[in-house]
Known about the structure:
With 135 residues, this protein is mainly beta. Helix content is 13%, strand content 36%.
Amino acid sequence: MEVIKCWEERSMTIKEPYKRHIKVMLAPDTRDVPEITYSHAIIDPGSKTDYHKHDRPELIQILSGRGISVCEGKEIPIEPDMALWVRAGEMHQIINTGVESIKLATVFVPGYTARENLERCVRAAEGASEEQGQP
């Protein structure tokens, strides 16, 4: 058994307009776990993820904070102790409409590498910044 102190893991910050902090704890290229990707994300008040989809399902658990989940155009209020099962190919997004950060735990099966997962988030933020004329 390996014990991971999640609070000690380094995070990567994705820039505006999809600002969030992501820590990948388990992945094929993180601790040699080929079966899954397990990560935490912290979304600050007023921020959001991009509206996106994956080629595999994603389990999202809301650990803290409140906001809205958008899936295939339908808005659903989210709060702690909720789990979202996002099927492969479903467009989805998390929007922090609250006053505190939203903390999520996510699982992909089969796993993406941490690099694939993070690079997709960075590309989305860079593309949106370029569209809005931001540096």
